[in-house]
Amino acid sequence: MLNKRWVSIGLVGVVIVLAAAAWFYWFDFSKPASFPANEQLMEKMNKVLPTAAVKSIQEHVQVDERHVFVPFVSEEGRYGVSYWEWKKNKWKLLYINNAGEPRLWKINSNDPSTFYIVWNSHPGDKVSYMKFYFIRDRGSQGHDGIETYNPKIQLEKKVTLMNKSYGVLSMPADWLAIMKSLQQAGNPNISDRLIDSVLPNNNNFYFGFISFDQSNQEAGIMNSVNGSSFTNGDINLDYISILNKSKIEEPLEQ
Amino acid sequence: MTINYNFAFSFQLIPIISLILAWCVIAIIAYRMMKKLQVKPKTWKALVCVLVGLFSFSINFPSLWDTPIKISILPLGVWILYAFLKRKEGCWVTYRRFAWLGFWANFIFLVAALIAVPIQNATYPKNELSTYMSTVENASIRSIHPSGEKSVLDTDTLLKQLHNMSQEKIQGIQWYQEKEIRSEQSIKRNERFPYQLFGTSSKWGSGLYPIIYLEADGKGILVTAPQKQLYFRSDESLLKGEE
User: Fold this and answer.
1) A3 falls within a domain
2) Which of B15, B173, B187 lies closest to A250 in CB terms?
3) Structural domain harbouring A236
4) What Rg, from alpha-carbon coordinates, does chain A have?
5) How many domains does chain A have?
């Protein structure tokens, strides 16, 4: 009698678990439907952020199977950005901004290979190319006669804006290798330590960029900043620091 | 729902062995207790009592080693079990020894951890480069700073030098303040360690994922592990095409 009852409880449990798994699968792992047409996108964008006043859509840039970057132009001639994700069985607008200064889109913040730098540079800023930087500042510490040192990491990636105001940059191989090594080393090996690491923090790296015009002068990007934006979902977007050449190290002449 | 598939599992051989041995000792003691008892308790119930008995209030003492010394003081798990079992006739008398075994097991774990420390240090000496760089055949370098010229790692020399490199003092503050020429236009400065080494692995079972930098002259190696940073120098340059 008791056994029978346990069996039926067990069966019901299994069915519930399977149904939940199927539900999650349907929601989160189903194959994305084709991306909506421009009219539907614009309708959604203007509803979420009326000030965006989207006039035309420039392109659907497929970042990965379930993430799309949609740059747009507004009625007032602003160049904006919108981020879309296939979620809960539909294409969801995650974030919209009517200015397109570069941002770092972390699709999965634990996995640097899903990081993308995304921008839509206003043509009025006359940016001809941008240099993106991956930086960790030099650091040193000394106490109790023991010194430690962290070398400066400074890597550069040049991106030329060829007839396109917008773009998506995936992490260069060197940046990715370094980020992954820092991430792995950052995992403490022994749990519940009492002593904090004696080393300066390894992981405080950041991203930056400088815009240049045709004559290789640093370009101001007045038209690509200070947009109005709306966050409509779960998205990890980091700022990318606006740097200038006086902050970038160059090798000493021999 | 995001899945964290980047979870780095660090495999530490010695702590795992010591943990398994400690559990074996606890199992043997529990088995002997069972044998001695007239009224045979249910095995799974005894097991639950041991597990609950483990729960205790403890104080951590910082130690000279990486493992803090954790001393259990209050047998919280034992009290919880007592509260549950006292009402049932004879139950507490039978099972209390297993609850107490759970509490004392904390000390068995402590002893195991303390025994593991010297073994750990002997197997994975903290001041030896070979602990951090054991396999180097597939090693390569990547430049991490514009002053790192396009050089190639000389794996043969690295293999030869690996056991002959001498440990030296890290001059972190001096290195930080190295020569630089600042102007409004730029900073001109070389990085002392402009390369990072990839493709090496630490000694098997150490669980270490050190970050290893190579000095501009190709002769210095800076190893950064979570608890320690070490600096080694070789007589020969580990870079190809460098003077």
Assistant:
1) no
2) B187
3) 26-247
4) 24
5) 1
Q: pTM for the complete prediction? A: 0.83
Beta strand spans in chain A (E): 54-57, 61-64, 67-74, 79-87, 90-97, 103-106, 115-120, 129-136, 139-143, 146-150, 153-160, 166-170, 206-212, 229-231, 237-239, 241-242, 249-250
Provide the shortest C-alpha distance from residue A141 to chain B (in Å): 7
pLDDT by residue (tens digit) across A194-232? 344 444 455 688 999 999 999 999 998 888 988 889 998
Please choose, from the candidates B26, B45, B33, B42, the residue with its C-alpha nearest in 3D space to the C-alpha of residue B104: B26
A210, A250, A254: which to substitute to probe chain B, counting the most B Cβ within 10 Å? A250
Spatial separation of the C-alpha atoms in residues A11 and A5, rounded to whole Å? 10
Using the Cβ of B190 and the Cβ atoms of chain A, whether some distance falls under 8 Å is answered with: yes
Alpha-carbon distance of A111 to A59, in angstroms, equals 26
The answer to whether position A167 is within a domain reads: yes
How far is Cα B88 from Cα B84, in angstroms, rounded to an integer? 8
Which amino acid does the sequence have at A76? E
CB A189 to CB B145 under 8 A?
no
Summarize pLDDT for A42-67 with one digit per residue, the tens: 999 999 999 999 999 999 999 999 99
Which three-class secondary structure state does DSSP give residue A27? helix
**Whole-angstrom Cα Rg for chain B:** 27
Question: B146, A249: Cβ pair inside 8 Å?
Answer: yes
Whether A6 maps to a domain, the answer reads no
Q: Is B150 on the interface with A (CB under 8 A)?
A: no
Rounded to the nearest 5 degrees, what angle is found at the Cα of A113, between the Cα atoms of A80 and A100?
10
SS3 A244: coil
Distances (CA, A) of A252 to B44, B171, B190: 71, 21, 6
A236 has a chain B CB within 8 A of its CB: no
Show Cβ contacts of residue B151 under 8 Å, excluding neighbours closer than 6 positions: B141, B195, B218, B239, B240, B241, B242
Distance from CA of A178 to the nearest CA of B (A): 8
Beta strand spans in A58-114 (E): 61-64, 67-74, 79-87, 90-97, 103-106
C-alpha distance from B223 to closest chain A C-alpha (Å):
10
Does residue A132 sit within a domain? yes
- pLDDT above 60 (res B31): yes
Alpha carbons A199 and A177: distance in angstroms, whole number = 21
Q: Count of CB contacts below 8 A, A vs B?
A: 160
| C-alpha distance from residue B61 to each of A163, A199, A236, B19, B113 (Å) | 64, 21, 40, 20, 14
Percent of chain B with pLDDT over 90: 59
Q: Which of A139, A110, A134 is nearest to A201 (CA)?
A: A139
